[in-house]
Amino acid sequence: MKDYDELLKYYELHETIGTGGFAKVKLACHILTGEMVAIKIMDKNTLGSDLPRIKTEIEALKNLRHQHICQLYHVLETANKIFMVLEENLLFDEYHKLKLIDFGLCAKPKGNKDYHLQTCCGSLAYAAPELIQGKSYLGSEADVWSMGILLYVLMCGFLPFDDDNVMALYKKIMRGKYDVPKWLSPSSILLLQQMLQVDPKKRISMKNLLNHPWI
Hints:
GO terms for molecular function: ATP binding; protein serine/threonine kinase activity. Helices cover 29% and strands 20% of the residues. The protein is an alpha+beta fold. The strands form 2 sheets. The protein has a 5-stranded antiparallel β-sheet. The chain has a two-stranded antiparallel sheet with strand order 6-7. The longest helix has 18 residues, at 139-156.
């Protein structure tokens, strides 16, 4: 329990609310303020080669402040453990607003917004064509595609490109053809078409997406 000594100066640990391959998440209470938080507890020995990925996630969360991103309050590191103290680990808040919580597979550009990335990460079903081809890519362009996939799933209830066979899924993504359910509005169909362009240069830009009438 020595690894927990510093943590227990500030937080009272409660029940485990989640477990995964590399971590467990405990509900906790800040001793002075009474605020409830979620603490992600990771064992460095178990993480092994995934430790750099966790460091990337921590750096990303330290630099992000947004109402729809789960806020990182505190990081404690001992010889054997990493503790990430986050706001309560909910995907929906009390107002039914979505929260982003996992940045373990993010890629951070080393230069400006026009810096090309080469990291291949994330779920294949959400990955942009240029990413799965192994090409260098602009993060903003690939993100627009992935957001288009997510938007489709939220509106339709299923993925636009899906297959149990990886190669078949790869071909479907590269083809860029998907079903358009009859309940989608014309404006949402148009937005999906603009976001899910196989050619990243034909894809709607992040700036234009933020100013899109449908959004």
